[in-house]
Amino acid sequence: MSYIKKIRIRKFCGLVELQKGVILITTFSLLNKLSGFFGMFTIFYGGDAISIISFFYSIIAAVAFAYFLYFGVLREDPRILGFYSLFYWLDLIVNILFTFAFEVMWYLVMDHAPLRPKERDNDDTISPQGTSSLPAWKVESTIANLILASVTVVHIYFGFVVHAYARFIEKHHHSTSRTSGFTFLKQEVDNNPLITSRYTSVEDDIESQI
C-alpha cells in the first residue's frame, strides 16, 4: 500500500472537490449494489451457486456503502474513512472475481462452432445454415471484454480518489487535534496563577543571570 500513498489526487476528475467526488462514487456504488437485488429471482428459479452468492454479497455491500456514506464521508470520520478505503479495494477485487466467474460460465454455455456457409440443395434452393465462418461469440466476447476492462480502469481510479480523500481527512484531523491541544494547554497555563507565577519567576531568574 506504500506506492498508493505516493499518489496524490487533489480533485475528482480535476474539477470537483474530493468530498463531492467521493459522495458521487459512493452513491454510484450503492445504486449498483441495489440493482443486485434483482438477483433474488435466481433463488426462486433455481439459479446457480455463484449467482446466489453474488446476490447475498450485493445486499451486504449495499449496507456497507450506505454506512460508509453517512458515517464516514458525510461526517468526515477519519477512522471510518480508512476502513472505507480498504473496503472499496476489497469490493473491487471481489467484483473482478465475480466477473471472471460469470464470463467463464458464459463461455462454457455458448455454441463455439463456426457458422457454415450457405449451401445449395439439389433443386438449387439455398439452405440457411450460416453466413460466416467466424464464430459470433468471438465478436461478442471481444466487445464485452473491452467494456469490462474500461469499467475496471474507472473503478481503480475511483479507488485512488477514495484513498486520497481518506488520507486528506486523516491529516486534517491530526492537524486540528494538535492545534486544539496546544490552544487548550495555553489556556490552562494562562488561567492557572500558580503556573503563571512559576513561569514569571523563571524568566526573572534568567534575566538576572544575564
Keywords:
210 residues
Furnish the topology, listing elements before pairings.
Layout: H1 2-5, E1 11-12, E2 16-17, H2 18-34, H3 41-44, H4 49-74, H5 78-109, E3 119-120, E4 126-127, H6 136-191, H7 193-209
Antiparallel strand pairs: 1-2, 3-4
Question: What features would you describe in this structure?
Answer:
Pfam families: Kei1 (PF08552). The protein has 210 residues and is mainly alpha-helical. It has one domain. It is built from seven helices and four strands, in the order H-E-E-H-H-H-H-E-E-H-H. The strands form two sheets. A two-stranded antiparallel ribbon has the order 1-2. A two-stranded antiparallel sheet has the order 3-4. Helix 2 (18-34) packs antiparallel against helix 4, helix 2 packs across helix 6 and helix 5 packs antiparallel against helix 6 (136-191). The radius of gyration is 30 Å and the shape is elongated. Residues 125-133 have low confidence and may be disordered.
Summarize, please:
The chain is mainly alpha-helical.
End-to-end separation: 54 Å
**How would a textbook summarize the main sheet?**
2 strands, antiparallel
Question: Are there runs of 5+ residues with pLDDT below 50, and where?
Answer: 125-133
Query: What proportion strand?
Result: under 5%
Question: Count of helical segments?
Answer: 7
Structural class: mainly alpha
Give the strand tally: 4
Radius of gyration: 30 Å
Label the overall shape.
Answer: elongated
Please trace the helix and strand order, writing H or E for each element: HEEHHHHEEHH
Number of domains: 1
Look at the structure and give the mean pLDDT. Answer: 77
Strand order, sheet with most strands:
1-2
Q: Approximately how much helix is present in the residues?
A: over 70%
